[in-house]
Amino acid sequence: MASDEVIDVVPVEDAGTKKKGGKARLIAIAVVVAGMLAGAGGVWWYMQTSGRAEHAEEGKHAEAPAEGAAEADPSASYIEVPPMMVNLRGGGAQAKFLKLRFIIVAADGKTEAVKARLPVVLDALQPFLRELRPDDLNGAAAVFRIKEEMMRRSASALGEGMVRDVLIQDLIQQ
Fold first, then answer.
1. What is the pLDDT of residues 133-155, one digit of tens each?
2. Using CA atoms, how far apart are residues 151 and 163, in angstroms rounded to an integer?
3. C-alpha span between 60 and 71 (Å, rounded)
């Protein structure tokens, strides 16, 4: 009942398809390898240039510490300011907010005077913070500009020599 016939099946290959697949595969591999080499070269270049910048910064700090640097004096007194939340100025329909938490570094022996006049500092900072636009918070230099303006306004509200530095802890845009 069972037949002992063996049927040989021979696959038919298209010679043109085999050549295209080989060339396409070779081109794809070449593109991937070139991309990986370009990426590795970019990472190497970035690491080389950032290393030079770090060494330059270290040299600047080692030669001449910045005036009013809080980390240079271990006797500095830190006054933590309650978190502030202000509306940002913007023309959009949706309201944008800025949540800011910072610390004031008081000059030597001026801690109690700065604490007593903290509401004056907050009053001086409110108009500046409310006039910020969401675009003012973009970019690497944004925090530096905001910190410098807060330092300037704090010094003008309290008097020169009262505030050594302003340290921004959180700067969150919602």
1. 888 888 878 888 899 999 999 98
2. 8
3. 15
User: By three-state DSSP, how is residue 64 classified?
Assistant: coil
**Contacts of residue 108, Cβ cutoff 8 Å, sequence gap at least 6:** 73, 75, 76
Question: Which residue type is seen at 130?
Answer: R
- The C-alpha atoms of residue 167 and residue 105 are separated, in whole angstroms, by 7
| Cβ–Cβ < 8 Å for 157, 123 | yes
> Rounded to two decimals, what is the model's pTM?
0.54
**Residue partners of 122: CB distance under 8 A and separation at least 6:** 81, 84
34 burial class (0-12, 13-18, 19+ CB within 10 angstroms)? exposed
Residue in 116, 144, 112, 147 with CA at minimum distance from that of residue 129:
147
Query: What is the residue type of 124?
Result: A
Main-chain dihedrals φ then ψ at residue 77, nearest 5 degrees: -110, 135
Tokens standing for 99? 């949540």
Residue 150 gets the label, from left (phi > 0), alpha (psi -120 to 50) or beta, of alpha
User: Would you give the DSSP letter of residue 92?
Assistant: S
Q: Encode pLDDT of 98-108 as tens digits.
A: 898 999 998 88
How far apart, in whole angstroms, are the C-alpha atoms of residue 77 and residue 87? 30
